[in-house]
Amino acid sequence: MSAAVSPAPRKGLSFRQPSVIPGFGLTLGFTISYFSLIILIPLIALAIRSAGLGPEGFWKAATDARVLGALRVSFVTALIAAGINVVFGTLIAWVLVRYRFPGRRIFDAIIDLPFALPTAVAGIALTAIYAPSGAIGAIFAPIGWRIAYTPVGIVIAMIFIGLPFVVRTIQPILEEVSNEVEEASATLGASRFQTITKVILPSLTPAILTGFALAFARGVGEYGSIIFIAGNIPFVSEIAPLLIYIRLQEFNYVGASVIATVMLLISFAMLFAINLIQAWSRRRYGYGH
């Protein structure tokens, strides 16, 4: 007489991945609590504070001419600086990964200098160099070109602080791309241009977009290194973080919250779009999995 085989118990739905290390509930609770305390709650408080004006008051404060001018300066210069950093940051990462030369390690370490350097020190140093009486500014002053105290100076400051994000994001991916891939491409008859555009760049696209997003976000929120070289002229070289500080000095806390909320919404929308492009790039080229 055969023993009856009881059906295996049905497993309930679970979003948790099996792991030999226990503590999922504890770590998840800590993660949510930490995320809420550091990020979510302050953002909600910011939105509530700015919503105190009501829809009409919020719109009026957000569309003020000076606010729009400051937002335009911040986001346009950040986009330009991030785009420049993508081009030159990719070239620098390529040189550091593909070539060996004297002083390479020192050069590689200098890339991280903007991470450790106080932003105010960077701003003062850049202003001293690019001011009309500075080492570089004096070269362009006789022909009427001003770098410091203009939007050009803002772009230079954003390039300085954003370059490490691009280089350090692309560099590890380049190290994973073997030289054999390039050699195989050449063996199959591809030109150098085709190897770069069809083999190398597709594998770097997600990293390039990530570096662009990080450099852009860093530039939009930068304050210390920009106020010294910007000139801070309304409608010309006044950035949004400085205008927020001015509103706080005027005890206009709601107005400052409105500007911060608008910056948050625009930044979130742009970063969300970049993440969508990254996901599309991974699906199309099969990298990043």
Describe this structure in words.
- The protein is built from 13 helices and no strands.
- It is 73% helix and 0% strand.
- The model has no long low-confidence stretch (mean pLDDT 86).
- It has a single domain (68-285), classed as MetI-like (MetI-like fold).
- 28% of the residues are buried.
- One of its GO terms (cellular component) is plasma membrane.
- Pfam families: BPD_transp_1.
- The complex is composed of two ATP-binding proteins (CysA), two transmembrane proteins (CysT and CysW) and a solute-binding protein (CysP).
- InterPro entries: CysT_permease, MetI-like, MetI-like_sf, Sulph_transpt2.
Salient structural properties:
Sulfate transport system permease protein CysT, MetI-like fold, mainly alpha, 289 residues, 13 helices
Kindly identify the CATH topology: MetI-like fold
* Secondary structure category: mainly alpha
- Highest-level CATH class: Mainly Alpha
How many DSSP H or I helices? 13
**CATH superfamily grouping:** MetI-like
Question: Strands, helices and their partners?
Answer:
Elements lengths: L23 H28 L2 H9 L2 H34 L5 H7 L2 H4 L2 H12 L6 H4 L10 H26 L2 H9 L4 H30 L5 H4 L9 H10 L3 H33 L4
Helix pairs in contact: 1-13, 3-8, 3-10, 6-8, 8-10, 9-10, 10-13, 12-13
Quick overview of this protein structure:
With 289 residues, the chain is mostly helical. It is built from 13 helices and no strands.
